[in-house]
Amino acid sequence: MDEFFPEAVFQIGDLVINRIHLIQFLATIAVVLIFWLGTRRMTIVPGRFQSIVEMGLDFVRVNIAEDLLGKKDGQRFLPILTTIFFMILFMNITGVIPGLNIAGTAIIAVPLLLAVVAYVTFIYAGIKKSPKNFFKNSLFPSGVPWPIYFIVTPIELISTFVIRPVTLTLRLLMNMMVGHLLLVLFFSATQFFLFTMGGWWSALAAGSLAFGFVFTLFEILVAVLQAYVFTILTAVYIQLAVAEEH
């Protein structure tokens, strides 16, 4: 657990930079560099690197933005959805890179920041679509008998404006934390059985090592899935905000 609260690498005034912060900086630099290199000299007939970058961008545009929001609203919110997806993906994947071994999203700062961005975007989209009726329609759904509003309105308030950013934050955070703990457990067990116990215990070391590699592959899948889930939920919330009833 101490790995989630590392000591400061260096400090500038009250600003403390630790190992996880450096990993976050590295992931951010990597994603910016890849997309800059992939798009700075785009050609009609793309090379391999440009093709890979375009495939990533098209995945978010086609399968998330335009699929849920339509072409017009999908194009409007594509930059924020693309940024969220690739920022989460690159920070998640650091959890399985040797030498880094922990996700940049494994501390609450990044998931919370992205949840706030998604929440503000959702509110902005709703107010932009229907300045006068967004909050009214969100808290007082049409077709409900007025006495029922005493029950429905508090539920809508909590579920729409409180639970959504909380669940976005905790879902991403907990998945990355649990994944890191599982990998530490398996590889620590391998080291313990092989070097501390020795003898026939080495057979168990082989088993824990195999499970460690399997869960490493599983963590790669989780890293991609969590980026996808966070982004698609953000798109769903935006879609609800710009729906015609608002």
TrEMBL record:
One of its GO terms (molecular function) is proton-transporting ATP synthase activity, rotational mechanism. It is a multi-pass membrane protein. The keyword Secreted does not apply. The chain crosses the membrane at residues 20-38, 77-97, 103-125, 146-166, 172-193. GO terms for cellular component: plasma membrane; proton-transporting ATP synthase complex. It is found in: Cell membrane; Membrane. The keyword Glycosyltransferase does not apply. Pfam families: ATP-synt_A. Keywords: ATP synthesis, Cell membrane, CF(0), Hydrogen ion transport, Ion transport, Membrane, Transmembrane, Transmembrane helix, Transport. Gene3D superfamilies: ATP synthase, F0 complex, subunit A. InterPro entries: ATP_synth_F0_asu, ATP_synth_F0_asu_bact/mt, F0_ATP_A_sf. Its main location: membrane. Signal peptide: none annotated. HAMAP family: ATP_synth_a_bact. This is ATP synthase subunit a.
